[in-house]
Amino acid sequence: MSAIQMPATGAARRSPRRVQPRVVGAAGALLLGGAAWLGAQYGFRHAGLFLVGAGCGLVLYHSFFGFTTAFRVFVTAGDGRGLRAQMLMLAVATLLFAPMLAAGEVFGTVVGGAVAPAGVSVLVGAFIFAIGMQMGGG
């Protein structure tokens, strides 16, 4: 059996590098500045959510988590563990949330789908997401 040669992407092309204090400092300053601005404009809940989102992104980036990686590994190496994990995650989410949405209420709180028109914020968010996906190799 022959292996398919593909250019290294994502985790495969990354080599261990030294921490760059200026980059980390600049990123930290931007995060804290953004959180401070959000806190002043919209309240500290938004600032906290911003920092939680940044922390989750950092963890996912360093754990090389990505949906496309599972597909790439399945196609190139025939290893379907990542795809099975994604299918299991979707099945569990569906089994947990479908009854809650059907009931319309959970623990006294009304639940429903978040339906809103797509506007400029969706366009900007999609653009930022695409940049992050390219930078993260996913």
Task: Summarize the model shown.
The protein is mostly helical and 138 residues long. It has helices at 21-42, 44-62, 67-77, 81-103, 120-136; strands spanning 105-106, 109-110.
Please provide a written account of the structure.
By secondary structure, this protein is mostly helical. Among the domains are: 21-65; 66-113, no CATH class. The protein has helices at 21-42, 44-62, 67-77, 81-103, 120-136; strands at 105-106, 109-110. Strands 1-2 form a two-stranded antiparallel ribbon.
Overall shape:
flat
User: For the largest beta sheet, what order do the strands appear in spatially?
Assistant: 1-2
- Estimate the helix proportion, in percent: 55-70%
How far apart are the first and last residues' alpha carbons, in Å?
27 Å
Keywords:
138 residues; mainly alpha; two-stranded antiparallel ribbon; 5 helices; 67% helix; flat
Topology of helices and strands:
Layout: H1 21-42, H2 44-62, H3 67-77, H4 81-103, E1 105-106, E2 109-110, H5 120-136
Antiparallel strand pairs: 1-2
